Structure prediction request, 265 residues.
Amino acid sequence: MKKLQTHIPCSPEDIAKIVLLTGDPSRSQLIGNKYLKKSKLVASYREFMTYTGYYKDVKITSTSTGIGSPSTATAVEELINLGAKIIIRVGTCGGALKKEIKAGSIIIPTAAIREEGTTKEYLPPEFPAIADFSVVNALIKNANELGYQYYVGINRTHDAFYGQSQNLRKWGSIYLNNRMKNWLFPLISSEMECAPLFLIGTLRGIKTGAVLAVNANPEPLKAIMEGKFNFDIPASKIQTKEAKASVDRAIRTALEAAVTIKDEL
Prediction:
């Protein structure tokens, strides 16, 4: 029998091969209580709250990580030790970085910029953090079938929720270049957890992906670079109705994707 993990203290039998990873413990609880059948709380320690149940007869675990990359890396490592083979992050990203991506949409990242400290303790920053293609395709397929508005592109993972906008601006320099300003720049979201999930998944041989709820008004990177976006106005204020709707869409997309890829286990 495998040793109990330090932060997710349960047995491998309690953890499904497919795991939905949330930041917010209340979202893990929501998935367990509302979306899964025959669900039970199998572990609760610090920010790590873990439920296991069934969705359309597929065994699924939901685990929370709290905010940021260090705790996400901890959860991912321990879930893999407990037997997880597919981990899909179900998170939020606030306001998207393109004006056309409105609150209520969902984002499916293909990769994450590693602008955080945790993954640098695994590999140099030049090594990419990439989602598994089969997971990305399953998420896209099911978002389509559910009729949701979704966007696919590159995500930025960073450390400071209240960090300075200058750290974001370096990624928008393309918009100030006359030759490149009209190119299709694929950086569309910013959050705090995807990079360690994708990188550790690659290193440890499991499949990973993410679906992000857009729960605030856009904060377009192009407008920021051109000095046309005012951070002092409540442009990123959470829209309660759309925020709840986008989280529901992200959860349902992830669950249906889990059903789609279960045969790859």
